[in-house]
Amino acid sequence: MSFIKKACSLVAIVLLISPAYAAGELAGKTLHVSVDPTTPPFSTLADDFITPIGLDVDIIIELQKRLGFEIAENRILPMMRSEQMKRIKNNQLDLVAGCLSATADRAKHLDFSPVYYDTGLSIIYSKSKYNKVTDFRKFNDAKVGAVEGTVSEHFIDRQLQGAQKVIFPSFMIAMIAVTQGTVDAIVYDRPLIEYFAQSMPDFNLEVIDDIYERQYCQIALGFGKNSPYTFIISKELYNMKKDGTLDAIVDKYIK
Fold this sequence. Notes:
The longest helix is centred in the N-terminal third of the chain and has 15 residues, at about 5-15. The two termini are about 30 Å apart. The protein is α/β, with parallel strands linked by helices. The protein has helices spanning about 5-15, 55-65, 80-90, 150-160, 170-180, 190-200, 230-240, 245-255; strands at about 30, 35, 45, 50-55, 70, 75-80, 95, 110, 115-120, 120-125, 145, 165-170, 185-190, 205, 220, 220-225. Strand 3 (about 45) and strand 4 (about 50-55) form a beta hairpin.
């Protein structure tokens, strides 16, 4: 069992035996909250290019309704992952989300909620360059992109050692590169690349059927290390799972 699965199993046991918190447990508290807006359908920006929307945003809003906390500046801040990690380590953020993988490396600096979505990596490519691809090794001599600081980098290093690895600062920049033919394929979290391919059919992109590295793609909420909010919010997230609210939010965005 992986480190993250062990940790989440322990959290689940603690939540099961702990007393329920009353509604409004965090009333009077103000949390600084951020999502990475380059991770649709988990989080992206509305048409005003300011307001974050998406699966993780809905989860945070539901938690706010139940626990009664305020959000600083009365808004969830859109922020790139690298900036999120910098600020939460410096205690400038209380809660981060946006398809955040709970990894052992991040757990050195963050606390995590229980995992609420289990996914994995996959590969997106242009159908104008490749016919139906059934084996990822097809890209072993190709130019393959990954997002900086993510599991996708390590996948290319381990599994596609013959490929030319190209690193991008964000998911959306990587997607632009594959649509323009700058790279042959992108390795990334399956829900994100699948959402992109389905919502942008004119780009003629395809996602390989297989899913890889599930153990590294456990999606959770992130908190500052030893945060006073981790347990209370995790408990309410567990309650949302029990009463069906969490599954309804996930199903709204991911079929």
